[in-house]
Write a structure and sequence with these properties.
The protein is an alpha+beta fold and 193 residues long. Helices cover 32% and strands 27% of the residues. Strand 3 (53-62) and strand 4 (68-76) form a beta hairpin.
Length: 193
């Protein structure tokens, strides 16, 4: 298997076939924004390939010198889910990425849909099994997330400052940290259908 940066001509297919299938509209950055971030050296999209077949992907968003990158998207193609590819990608990232990785995993909602909460709980458990620890809650895309890292400062204000440095965008839907009684601001990238 080869884990490499995706070529520019692979982006459209990845966006249309993979990202659009796996993430709701409010969580998808528009492709032109992703292309701008790549051109600015702030975004890397890596794919895990078996020959020419994409098995999974990881999108990393960062700011030079911030010391952290945000795992913006982690996905496995629908036909390959449940086979350990996501864990394999996480392990490869931890071994290759010189910056520390911040993961944002959507929190279960008290009184929320049971099936959706089960998925959210399962995702957090997946990252915990990979060694990530929850640090604090934050908001983006109109939702509440648990910010997780493998390591990092125990000083939460230092961690939130590093997290903000990754975004460095003034997005109105991002709040780091988000208090337990605070409501996430509305989504910025898109709207739910």
């Amino acid at each position: 298997m080869e884990f490499r940066i995706m070529e520019t001509d692979e982006l459209q297919n990845w966006y249309d076939q993979e990202l659009s299938e796996a993430f709701p509209p409010r969580e998808r950055k528009p492709l032109p924004v992703i292309r701008e971030l790549i051109a600015a050296g702030r975004y890397t999209l890596r794919g895990l390939y078996d020959g020419g077949t994409l098995l999974g992907y990881a999108a990393l968003w960062g700011k030079p010198g911030a010391g952290y990158v945000l795992l913006d998207y982690l996905g496995v193609t629908a036909a390959r889910r449940g086979g350990g590819i996501g864990a394999h990608i996480l392990a490869r990232l931890a071994g290759q990425e010189k910056n520390r990785i911040i993961i944002e995993s959507e929190c279960p909602l008290p009184g929320g849909d049971e099936a959706e909460n089960a998925i959210r709980t399962r995702r957090i458990g997946f990252y915990e099994r990979a060694g990530y620890r929850g640090r604090y809650e934050m908001a983006a895309c109109g939702a509440r997330f648990l910010a997780m890292t493998l390591d990092g400062p125990e000083d939460i204000p230092a961690m939130t400052a590093a997290h903000w440095a990754v975004y460095d965008s003034g997005r109105p839907d991002v709040k780091i940290p988000l208090g337990p009684n605070e409501t996430p601001p509305p989504a910025f990238w898109g709207r739910e259908p």
